[in-house]
Each structure stands twice: as C-alpha cells, then as structure tokens.
C-alpha cells in the first residue's frame, strides 16, 4: 500500500497508546531511557487541558519526542517528563524547561494534503530543567537508521492500555512492529503494523532494533476506530541538517 493510499483512510491527530502489547522489560536500557511526557495547559477559568506523549532520553537533559507533542501546547504550559521504576510505574518526575522543533516541521498533515515530508519532520527535542536521575542513561540513536529499520523492531508507549479508560495511562508497554520505509530523504517515513493497538499517549515513543533507536511514533492510520495497529514512524537521521539544527537549538534553549 502506498503512503498516499494509507493517508486516504484518514490520519489520526496524535498517535496513541499501546492497548495491548506487553509490559516493557524491567531493567532494559531502552525501557529505562523511555519517559512519559505530561503537559498541563490552562484553557479557561479554573480549567486546564492535560496532554500525554512518550519520549526517549538521548542526552542527560534532552528527550526526543514527536513534534506535535510540543506544538500542540498552546500558551503557557507546565510540562514534565516522568521516569519509570522496575515495575514500569511512574516513579520520578523532572520538569521540562524548553524545547525545539525540527526546522522542517510545519504542522500536522491531513488526508486531503498528506505532505509526506511534513510527517517525517514531526520531531522535537525537550530540554529538562535538571538532568535525568543518576541511574538513567541516554539511549544511542542508530547510525544507519534505514538499515536498522529493516531489522526486527519494537516500539514503546505509556498511554492508554484500555482505549475507553482514561485512568489506564502511565504504564510503559512494548510491542513488536513490522516496519517498511515508504519515503526517503532526511525526513523519511516508515509505515508499520504493531502487535497492539495504538490509541493515545504514545506519540513520540521510540522505535528500536538491535542497531539502536531508529524511529519515533508520529501517527496512526484509521478509518472509523480511534485506535489502530497501523502506525507511521519518523525515521531518525542524526547526521541530517534538520536533526542537527533541532539538537543545537534544544541545547541552547532556556
């Protein structure tokens, strides 16, 4: 199936959570580097909107996630990164100080105007106000992401485990994903089928093979249901101009 054909089915807003899959492996390096991102944005008198995404620690104070997770935060927001314990429950919280979007990201795509290059640039790096806990180590990005994407891969997410249950988020889960890169260039996109439904809260979750983290979950393909196992992933190219610019801006941001 072509990318355009997939998009004609409808492109969900943010990608979501693993309703299914299995609990992430306790003690695994990728598990310990994955974080749950929560934002609180005032939306009116005595009201606020809560948003969730997943991300991965790439430096002691930098978290990689999906671009729309950052751009959706309208106005002043309190944003935190939450770390998991050996039972995959949230145990530590660090405030996010700032962030930087990929320079080629220009907002979400739509079924009517897919813009594949926009999908692949759906990336952001968040800068933590304080370094991650001492027992957490940044995860390495794959040096050859297109080759890494051809290997057996998994994705992690901490959103809703039960699609209709708002209280089921916040537990890290893992699922296998069969992926195929469907566009090329510095903002390539992969399409895959995960071993669990992706619903909400999993945008920005890392996708990795034995060669390292090669992708980030950015969107799902859906027709009627709000959940689906068919998922789009931005393929990371840490040597590309856009990624290096985003990284530099995140490091300089306050």
Automatic annotation (TrEMBL):
Peptidase S1 domain boundaries: 18-254
Family recorded in the similarity comment: Belongs to the peptidase S1 family.
UniProt keyword Electron transport present: no
Pfam families hit by this protein: Trypsin (PF00089)
Gene3D superfamilies xref list: Trypsin-like serine proteases
Signal peptide as annotated in the record: 1-19
SMART domains, A to Z: Tryp_SPc
Source species, domain of life: Bacteria
Organism, scientific name: Hansschlegelia beijingensis
GO biological-process terms attached to the record: proteolysis
GO function terms (MF aspect): serine-type endopeptidase activity
Protein name: Secreted trypsin-like serine protease
Assigned keywords, A-Z: Disulfide bond, Hydrolase, Protease, Serine protease, Signal
PROSITE patterns hit by this protein: TRYPSIN_DOM (PS50240), TRYPSIN_HIS (PS00134), TRYPSIN_SER (PS00135)
């Amino acid at each position: 199936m072509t990318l355009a054909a997939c998009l004609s089915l409808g492109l969900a807003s943010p990608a979501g959570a693993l309703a299914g899959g299995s609990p992430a492996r306790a003690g695994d390096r990728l598990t310990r580097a994955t974080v749950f991102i929560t934002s609180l944005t005032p939306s009116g008198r005595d009201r606020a909107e809560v948003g969730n995404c997943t991300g991965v620690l790439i430096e002691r104070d930098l978290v990689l996630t999906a671009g729309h997770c950052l751009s959706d935060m309208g106005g002043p927001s309190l944003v935190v990164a939450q770390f998991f314990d050996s039972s995959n429950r949230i145990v530590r919280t660090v405030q996010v100080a700032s962030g930087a979007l990929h320079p080629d990201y220009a907002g979400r795509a739509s079924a009517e105007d897919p813009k594949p290059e926009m999908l692949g640039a759906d990336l952001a790096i968040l800068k933590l106000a304080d370094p991650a806990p001492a027992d957490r180590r940044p995860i390495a990005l794959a040096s050859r992401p297109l080759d890494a994407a051809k290997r057996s891969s998994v994705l992690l997410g901490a959103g809703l485990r039960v699609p209709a249950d708002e209280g089921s988020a916040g537990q890290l889960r893992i699922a296998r994903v069969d992926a195929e890169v469907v566009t090329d260039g510095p903002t390539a996109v992969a399409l895959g089928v995960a071993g669990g439904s992706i619903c909400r809260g999993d945008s920005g979750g890392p996708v990795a093979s034995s060669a390292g983290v090669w992708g980030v979950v950015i969107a799902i393909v859906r027709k009627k249901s709000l959940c689906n196992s068919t998922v789009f992933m931005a393929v990371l190219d840490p040597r590309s101009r856009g990624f290096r610019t985003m990284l530099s801006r995140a490091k300089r941001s306050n």
